[in-house]
Specification:
Elements: E1 4-6, E2 18-24, H1 27-37, H2 62-75, E3 83-87, E4 90-91, E5 100-110, E6 115-123, E7 129-138, E8 145-147, H3 160-169, E9 175-180, H4 185-196, E10 200-206, H5 208-218, E11 226-229, H6 233-245, E12 251-254, H7 259-266, E13 281-287, E14 295-298, H8 308-324, E15 331-335, H9 346-359, E16 367-372, H10 374-378, H11 380-385, E17 398-400, H12 404-416, E18 421-427, E19 433-434, H13 442-460
Parallel strand pairs: 9-10, 9-12, 10-11, 12-19, 14-17, 15-16, 15-17
Antiparallel strand pairs: 1-8, 2-5, 3-7, 4-7, 5-6, 6-7, 13-14, 13-18, 18-19
Helix pairs in contact: 3-13, 4-5, 4-13, 6-7, 8-9
């Protein structure tokens, strides 16, 4: 926030002076107000139905609207140095998230001891008043200006990008999903949660008694779901692969078993789910608060130290996923420690080669650039400082890590330090493979199911 403000001291004030400020009410403002005031009335929360009519109201709290008056008085007229004495309020309308509001004040009286009175009101976008009142303030006694550059910014921890994915996926027919070994409460709950949101139609493959115990622990009724009793994890994974090959399932979901057992059956050259010889890779799809687009991190779960050929498959898999999620031309930043090619740092050589491979059509569907350091991959100002001219630098939607260790650390740093939500999916097979973690919360599990549904829907076209 940076604004130069100049006040009008008491001796320069004249009756009839006016000032105004216009501001659009955002959904984030309602959350900030709820947290700062403690007023969590559901009438004011963007996603809640506060009156039971089946629709969220997103009504602006009256005192939030009133605060716009103090912003005009404190920042414009009289401006910095002003202190409140009294304020009357009459609410004659309502405002909602998305409305453009204009607050106006008019000086009506100068009194003693620097006390001045104003008519105050707030209008919506078509000029209709929603608030009227009178203010009394103590005006500053001397001229001063103020640069509001040191006020900390706020980032609201909401995940609008995952909400968008759920909105896109929920109207689709639920995809039949072979859930392998859902034998723990968290593994079973993730699958059933996806089913309740009509994202997947789970086929539960595993030890039937353990699945039943997990259901009892979570209070889940298993009667609507098909259960295939397989008491060996490898056999359960083989059955899931068979179902996909026989068109009984359109996705695979990992339950409570080792990842290498599941993927070992998927990548078999004979009878597996390999697609055209392409390597499988994992993509974290991340909703980072404050970032205006989805961010994908790959590969952080499967390929430990990928060579150039494997990295090309990793990039192509991520591009295919991004396109399935509605990104027309994904921008791929291939990461290293620096943004220049340095033979002493092998990842910079791979990054440069991947960029050239995209130029020559060996990688298709997206824009690829590298090497890029993390800062100039995602921040335009950092890219400009380094003098990087690129359609990707500062705008990357896909981050390709040099190896599994760095990718895994990056994804977990974003999750636990930047409060990102992360959905995980394996690409490069004949169907999407959902990898869930015990650390995933409900939104992450739902996001993974929604991502799989969108990928499966695109693959069916």
């Amino acid at each position: 926030m940076s604004e130069r403000m100049q006040n009008v001291p008491f001796d320069q004030l004249e009756v009839g002076m006016v000032a105004e400020r216009t501001r659009t009410l955002k959904a984030e403002d309602l959350y900030v107000y709820a947290n700062s005031s403690g007023n969590v009335n559901p009438m004011h929360l963007p996603k809640e139905d506060g009156d039971g009519d089946g629709q969220p109201e997103s009504v602006a709290p009256g005192m939030w609207i009133a605060s716009l008056i103090s912003a005009v008085l404190g920042c414009k007229l009289p401006g910095p140095g002003t202190l409140y004495h009294a304020q009357t309020l009459r609410f004659v309308g309502r405002a909602h998230a998305g409305d453009e509001l204009t607050c106006k004040v008019r000086l009506t009286e100068k009194g003693d001891d620097r006390l001045v009175k104003f008519d105050t009101w707030v209008e919506d976008g078509d000029g209709t008043r929603i608030l009227e009142g009178e203010a009394e303030v103590f005006a500053p006694d001397k001229s001063m200006s103020f640069e509001a550059s040191d006020v900390p910014g706020l980032t609201v921890q909401q995940h609008v990008h995952f909400d968008r994915l759920l909105t896109l996926a929920e109207p689709l027919p639920p995809i039949p999903t072979a859930v392998v070994a859902p034998e723990s409460p968290d593994a079973l709950a993730g699958a059933i949660l996806g089913a309740r949101h009509t994202l997947i139609d789970p086929i539960l493959i595993g030890h039937a008694d353990r699945i039943g115990e997990a259901a009892e622990a979570e209070g889940i009724d298993l009667s609507p779901y098909r259960i295939v009793d397989m008491r060996d994890h490898r056999l359960a994974a083989q059955e899931a692969v068979r179902m996909v090959l026989d068109k009984e399932a359109a996705a695979v979901m990992k339950g409570h078993l080792h990842t290498d057992i599941l993927l070992g059956e998927i990548v078999k050259r004979e009878g597996g789910l390999r697609k055209g010889g392409r390597r499988l890779s994992h993509v974290f799809v991340m909703d980072v608060p404050g970032l205006d687009h989805l961010l994908m991190v790959t590969d952080a779960a499967i390929n430990i130290a990928p060579d150039l050929h494997t990295k090309a498959d990793i990039v192509q898999n991520a591009i295919d996923l991004a396109i399935a999620l509605g990104i027309e031309q994904p921008k791929v930043g291939v990461l290293s420690a620096v943004e220049v090619v340095n033979p002493a740092i092998p990842s910079t050589l791979d990054a440069a080669a991947l960029s050239k491979m995209a130029d020559r059509g060996q990688i298709t569907g997206g824009l690829v650039d590298g090497p890029l350091a993390m800062d100039n991959a995602i921040n335009l100002a950092a890219a400009a400082t380094k003098g990087i001219t690129s359609l990707v630098a500062g705008r990357a939607e896909i981050l390709v890590a040099p190896n599994l260790e760095s990718g895994n650390m990056l994804a977990k740093e974003l999750t636990f330090l930047a409060h990102a939500e992360a959905g995980g999916i394996v690409m490069g097979a004949k169907c999407p493979v959902i990898l869930t973690s015990r650390a995933d919360d409900d939104q992450a599990r739902l996001a993974s199911c929604a991502i799989a549904a969108l990928v499966a829907e695109r693959g069916a076209k």
